[in-house]
Amino acid sequence: MSNIYIAYHFTIEPKDLGSEILIAELGEQAFESFTETETGISAFVQKDLWNESILDDIHVLQSDEFTIDYTFEEIEQVNWNEEWEKNFEAIDVDGNCHVRAPFHPKTNAEFDIVIEPKMSFGTGHHETTHMMIQHLLEMDVTGLKTLDMGCGTAILAILAEMKGAQPIDAIDIDNWCYLNSIENAERNNCKYITVYEGEAALLEDKKYDLIIANINRNILLNDMQSYVNSLKPQGTLLLSGFYLEDIPYIDASCIEKGLTYVKKFERNNWVSLKYVN
Q1: Contact 159, 214 (CB under 8 A)
Q2: HSE (CB half, 13 Å, CA atoms) of 90?
């Protein structure tokens, strides 16, 4: 293979959901690495695998929901680990949970989580992951059978196990996230997490004390009945992946299905909600 790459630099609005969809679609078209930028993402494909029509089947580029512009250039081979290390900073949530990469020093935080996200979302840097961590830090999850739906890197499943939850199912529809979640669970010496590749259909006939779903508004609304069906009496549902203005839609769906609102976290217009059955 050539050491020459084609780099595409995308500006995306709204950035977070648009980036997630764009990465998923580009991953189907030979793009092999992605880095987050202030305004979107950069995506890289080996020149040997590139052609001028490589973006023709990227549907999100034609979507009315997003404004996406891009430039592209030819570059020499990049050291992906070096690029990633330059852009990944360790984070601290409420002084109790430290999320870091393998090359960051260990701290004395009660919950020290090592994540190597690669192409997956869920490093703790995003507002929604941060708020879900806050919910979990407040809860006693000891012995709770738990589901991390749309697990990304499995960071939330890992924290749940560190706090005593078990057994834990982690599910993601994306193959890369599935593989990355397995790696991260092993990296953090987790014994009770089982990772599955798939969607809400996998929940049939399963029951959980705690369901964590950090996805996006449309998927949450579409799959809400599946979550409620899988929630045990007095079970807890934690939701995030949507904006302040989406609350009425999420809340109406939850209340209609018999759930009771408990609490909200808000961070930079993103929201996380807690409900009980």
Answers
A1: no
A2: 17
What is the rounded distance in angstroms from the CA atom of residue 120 to the CA atom of residue 150? 11
Q: How far apart are CA 151 and CA 132, in angstroms?
A: 12
pLDDT tens per residue across span 29-53:
888 778 788 899 988 888 888 999 9
Q: Cα 8 to chain center, whole Å?
A: 23
- The CATH topology of domain 4-84 is Alpha-Beta Plaits (3.30.70)
* In contact, 15 and 100? CB cutoff 8 Å: no
* Residues 111, 211: Cα–Cα separation, whole Å: 20
Structure letter (DSSP) for residue 174: S
Please give the structure tokens belonging to residue 122.
């869920």
Mapped onto helix, strand or coil, the DSSP state of residue 221 is: helix
List the chain domain ranges. 4-84, 126-276
The encoded tokens of residue 157 equal: 């499943």
CA distance 34 to 230: 35
Residue range 136-149, pLDDT digits in tens: 999 999 999 999 99
Look up the CATH superfamily of 126-276: Vaccinia Virus protein VP39 (3.40.50.150)
